What does this fold into?
Amino acid sequence: MEGDLKVGIVGFGYWGPKLVRNFAEMSGVILEWVVDLDEAKLGKVHRDYPGVKVTTSVGEMLASDVDAVVIATPIRTHYKLARQSLLVGKHVMVEKPLTDRSEHAEELVSIADRLGLVLMVGHTFVYNGAIQALREIIASGELGDIYYVDSARLNLGLFQPDINVLWDLAPHDVSILRYILGMEPLSVSAHGSAHVRPGVHDVVYAEFAFPHNILAHVHLSWLDPCKVRRVTVVGSRKMVVCNDVADVEKIRIYDKGVERTYVTDKFSDFHLEYRYGGVHIPYVPFREPLAVQCEHFVSSIRHGTTPTTDGREGLQVVRILEQADRSLQEGGVRKPLMGLLDGSRLVGAGKDGMAVSGVAHGH
It folds into this structure.
């Protein structure tokens, strides 16, 4: 499309102000509307961005000539707002997760396809330079065969009123795991505990089984004194740690490992060698991932291309979260994912199902 792209944003809570800032500063974009039910928040928008229209009515914004709608509201409202927006011909970006039910996500994907509209999900870490570098390191084979992945996403809060910590934080980890490994998980199990509000899990441990005997463990918590955003990948040759909380040196590659010196059937001949090599810290250029995500949304609309994290990617994540939540409610019973997931398109997937480099073009 030609000319400035007109954007409306629904929700001015946690993510809303960051989205408003990014779209307001983007060239070739006019931030036309901000919608929120809180008049005080709208007053702040009016003071900080006097040229932006504000309203408590989603319908008023949808009746205007905005080209695209960005939804940053509680998860339970995503389906209704996205559906309304798509049906009146607006391109849509929804903050993660796409919906709280897979059948709703399927319907949104179907509507977007039928009307030729862009539907994108805010899996922000896919647009994070450190996570992109991590994917490329794995794809290069430098780590050798991947043994397992360990992910920790911990903080004190932010407690959500209508969802547990799995639905709040795990969308990040599920999208990261699929992205860096370039394959779909085969099964999931989850267990946890509810300490602050009865029945609402605030601590969760989830385990995902991937092809090639790769296990991924995810630790999620709203009850940790330290903010942790860390992904560790252990391979047969090397290991790598991605620490997103670090100001610099977000990626560290460790030349460490353990090897059997030779193979024998005799227990007395069982020997291991431990390798303690150096640490390599690659340079990772950094841009605000949310800015990259917003630019990618606009670029996808302008050029009629499929976003890296389109509606189908969002649907896959919702399906995985549903099975993980069922496992959580049933005390950790392993739930199969084979047959539930569409393996026809996977972000970064190569011919053998492993990740390849250079996927996120135009970021």
